Write a sequence for this structure.
């Protein structure tokens, strides 16, 4: 359905050519200072037309807040907001419409609903993500201002051009010689990257040695009237330990759910991910060490900040795979709805690569997951807090009161 | 929380040393012929002690049905079931308990709840999956008997030993010469593999050329008192088109959520997954062709049966990454709960590799997702079915009545 | 929270002085012919200023559809809609604001959120119901057009003026002489009343012998700068048997939940309700008789169409109690937020009695419950339909196939 | 479905003649001291055979805890528990089974599911409530021990025999002479009644002047092989202000949902309820006065502790109507499943009146609602707590920090 979250919850509406797209955000903490401008920042990072790498449409995407805020403070009641669609007319019928676009949602929407919007894939439109980004921007602002939680995403690969991450060699024989599961430079990048750094380049790749090749790869796709996929990596720093709900709503399970609900996504991995499956436990396990302030930390973080589905206080990092956009203007041999074979060349201009624009969407969905899990854990802690301390159990079964 | 699903819903309980583990399954279709033996099949595939590759514990794991079935027919009411724990005493306290096991859930459970089971990671125990497998077995049986939907999972890699799947070369220059996104043999394997074939070998890898090396790799981990990870690939054949709920509950988003709720999972990809992000849209798109019986099919299936988050009627296939088990008997340098450094060597025998046993768990979670999505789509179709046919819209906006 | 429903789901936003109030309706059957005018009908019945019995404000309440509909057909995607607030400025601060209005939501909203809208009770505003009425209008239209389900509410009492319903005498000794649990004329009214009939009089009471007294009672309250409560009775005719989900989501439990979520409600009863608790089972039970077309019906319907929480195909009727409106312009001795005693006289004009305007709100909430339960039962039936017939059970355990 | 609650959540299973009935309770605060005996107290109050007023079956109803507790402390993980059914054989088929019992759930279950348990109404069995009572007992214990919240229910009427509550006269003319909306003695009873007091008499009516007549009424029903209904009133004392979620999950809406999910319920009212609808606002409104400790309280409490759907810190009291039990051994003229008319006389012994046994069930459902709403409000407060204080808004818009 179109609702995401338990206590911090967003419900979205809208498709390409209707009057507006928007959302209702329920569960926003009351008393938070919030203006449209706070939301607009991420919306503007999301919108097309920001560089020669994206589609030339330049929609303004101005957010209009409808409710839930008075004199710049949230009331705790639902925030309704919307962004008007520039082109609100139903799509004009042309010969192109005879074809379901290959690997797009035209066919599946028609099959699912028995009817589809004239513009095709309905809610699979990238414009649907406006509501998520707006909701995520609110969560993100709260998390950063109040808890110092930083969520930063960036483009980690375009086609075969990738920020170097793994040090795992491709041969079985090398197994015993690996020192690190992932590249130390990559880990360093994760711990320092900022949104400002990411936005310095239109590719939204903060790795100097890679972004030029990425840019060239996207331009090559564009010139070929083709498209290319890529990956977005995201790091969440400053998370408290204890988030994530056993057993079905593990922290990374909710993250994966959130990420794969973004259009064009096909893959997700947390921590060392697929590469880590190749590394023996003795080297993949993250040993504990004493923190300076007294608690425990881990000396490595191949787990990506999540163990047993619960955050352990280390950085959470994950990668999301986006397929090459389905809509290309290069002619494709395919079939019409009735099966007649033919050649389809999509009209108009299209994003040859979505990953730069996907960066704020990934951040927003991450913020929604963190905010919701934080509120659920807050409920548990606040409910358990007044219980008397336990003195009769073995010490390793009970957290010392100071750590609560 | 411990509940999964909207209309077909499982709620589980239990940890390692309590009286029993079990679940309540709500939303089972009434009038389905069902006995304990039907459920036991998958439970027995899940349990340890099946080969020299797994832990030597041999729990019987006999399912005891409590409700919801009378004279071998389901009543439509919740099915309560449980499996007794053989060892129901709280864990005895030893020096080992001073250490949170690295990369296990001991530390995170303690942090989350402020208290933990003496045995450690509480609900992160593999025994928790018994409830899911039992619930999944019921869904699986319905889907297969009534709709011919086949769900088959198998081990696709152990460490660096992998069933060959991708044909994508590692250099940018080769890009224009790739014919297939994935290996044709691999695609053939997906379309033909059966559970019987998978169970022929203790590795649960159906690929003759790979399983011996896998087996050797697991034995090497075992002999080194170490562990090794791997991947499980799963294919769902015979799915109807139209499953998956836009926008947040896309079919693959729910699959990812379900899969990453399984203990030790770190990664998920559907269709061509991360590899597919490297392939231009013109080659990655799946062209439509006329089916023999009149509808549309696609000539390739790099999408993995899901487009726009909705199934298109082609095979759904996905891969799940399992990290190397955290519990190893090889000594590890780490710290105690209070930060004191020391060496931990886990007691007892442990699975050096979980992927063979994870196969029925992956199948079961897949069955839960399919069943729930099928029921939701059934609700939509049955509600829309009596509406009068639409004659006033452009033909490409409306599915011809025969296809409903 | 601000979301209601499982498969047919409405989420609302908005309070008195924000930009707009509105909602997102998810789960609307695709392919339904629907225009703004279809929704406007019920919105217009809900709005104030319709007679001298209600507040003289005359807001236009024009619905603006944002999404989910194209060329007058629903797409199956969420319908976003909104109604602009005429007065969008934050409320000006006056001395009156020093007082929480007695029995209003000013105090509880402030306590709950720590902040409240300047206009007071925030989401407890009657304007919030616009979203519900709009959503209910869509459900209502589907239910009536496609299934012939009629939902009609009417005013059954104002103050002590009540449409005669019960025949139960007030003395224990009479017990054995009662022939009917409820008045036969009342039962006849329930089975024939229409919205047209209800709207003939501004009281929205269809009972000729009562409405004049009701009208006089409301006018008396108005003239006294006071207010008066009342009840709304609603009947749902044409419901299929089998709706309602055991055990927590019984049909009448969901109805009660829906009704008591309407502002100013304090009581709910279904069928013979509280009066029925006084009647022995031998007279209160509804005996079964053969229907003309072959199935079973009941010769009486004191159950109100629900038995064991599941509809039995008879008319569902229930009554909802609305307290006297809290906002009155008559001076009240009370205290300011800081406890200072004083006299509050609310400014402006207020509804002396809300029940006439509550009629379409009750109908809409009823439609939301019926639609959601219908879709859930549709899911169950469509999922169970392809199962083979059961031949091995005692005949009274299985419904004959023809009745399915 | 069979699940109730958002953060504190119970899922139940089981019917009359299956192996056991039980539940899974998720969201229990970790670190709570809890033994089976704590749960057994309410289960024993619920079970039949406690007096000559109830059915003579004497099931032991011993609770068996399966999980979630170790060494008498809750782990925060789900608590699975069950109570074995004494008679686990499917019901033997007799001529009586040809008849759907009038006003029972036999017919509706068969219609809903197409199959039913041989014993009839399946999950509508009173034994299903065991799971709820067990879950409620845990919530109740936490609420009382940690927050001093007391939940006490009692029988307030049997048939026409009622604890005097209202002072509202039956004639319109008296209107201006009423001093109190409800009887002061009744309000006093609500503020002082205890479970011990309630249990002093088998009727579970704490009002000395009424209970003898109630007892006689029940015995008269029993001797007539008939049954009689009644009401249960419940008071919740010590509730914090601020519970209840606008707009659909108002505190009393959730209470009503919970109460009407109990078998045999037909009516619910909070505060002055239906009677209060007859009283003008000027007399029904609850004026604010300064509390001794500085905050606000109300000098009357006709609202029943809920205003705008949110608790205001006053006592919550509500009444639930239970119909006369449908199963009576007195012969009834009715029809068989196939429509054949005939006479049904139910076998065995049956409760002539359920309200005494319903008392702990009402308390338990109330405890479930309070606990869940408390946890949700805890989440909100704990999330908003670290926000900086607001200084720029009019003082009546913001709660002073000390009151948070």
């Amino acid at each position: 359905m179109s609702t995401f979250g338990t206590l911090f919850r967003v419900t979205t509406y809208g498709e390409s050519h209707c009057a507006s797209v928007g959302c209702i955000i329920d569960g926003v903490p009351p008393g938070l200072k919030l203006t449209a401008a706070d939301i607009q920042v991420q919306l503007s990072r999301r919108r097309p037309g920001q560089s020669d790498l994206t589609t030339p449409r330049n929609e303004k995407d101005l957010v209009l807040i409808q409710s839930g805020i008075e004199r710049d403070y949230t009331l705790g009641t639902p925030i309704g907001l919307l962004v008007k669609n520039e082109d609100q007319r139903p799509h004009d019928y042309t010969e192109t419409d005879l074809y379901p676009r290959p690997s797009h949602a035209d066919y599946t929407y028609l099959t699912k609903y028995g009817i589809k919007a004239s513009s095709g894939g309905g809610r699979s439109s990238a414009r649907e993500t406006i509501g998520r980004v707006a909701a995520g921007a609110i969560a993100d602002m709260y998390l950063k201002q109040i808890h110092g939680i930083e969520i930063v995403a960036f483009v980690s690969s375009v086609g075969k051009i990738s920020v170097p991450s793994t040090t795992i060699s491709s041969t079985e024989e090398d197994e015993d010689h690996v020192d690190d599961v992932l590249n130390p430079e990559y880990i360093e990048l994760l711990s320092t990257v900022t949104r400002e750094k990411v936005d310095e380049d239109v590719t939204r790749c903060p790795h100097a040695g890679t972004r030029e090749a990425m840019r060239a790869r996207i331009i090559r796709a564009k010139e070929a009237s083709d498209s290319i996929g890529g990956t977005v990596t995201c790091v969440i720093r400053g998370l408290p330990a204890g988030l994530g709900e056993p057993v079905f709503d593990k922290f990374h399970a909710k993250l994966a759910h959130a990420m794969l609900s973004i259009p064009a996504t096909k893959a997700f991995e947390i921590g060392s991910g697929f590469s880590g499956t190749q590394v023996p436990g003795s080297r993949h396990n993250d040993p504990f060490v004493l923190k300076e302030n007294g608690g425990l930390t881990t000396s490595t973080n191949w787990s990506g900040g999540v163990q047993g589905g619960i955050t352990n206080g280390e950085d959470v990092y994950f990668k999301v795979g986006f397929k090459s956009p389905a809509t290309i203007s290069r002619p494709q041999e395919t079939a019409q709805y009735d099966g007649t074979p033919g050649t389809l060349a999509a009209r108009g201009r299209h994003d040859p690569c979505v990953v730069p624009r996907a960066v704020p969407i990934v951040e927003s969905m991450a913020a929604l997951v963190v905010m919701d899990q934080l509120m659920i854990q807050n409920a548990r802690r606040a409910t358990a807090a007044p219980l008397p301390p336990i003195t009769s159990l073995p010490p390793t079964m009970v957290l010392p009161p100071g750590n609560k």
Observations:
- The first strand of chain C starts at residue 3 and ends at 4.
- The mean pLDDT of chain C is 92.
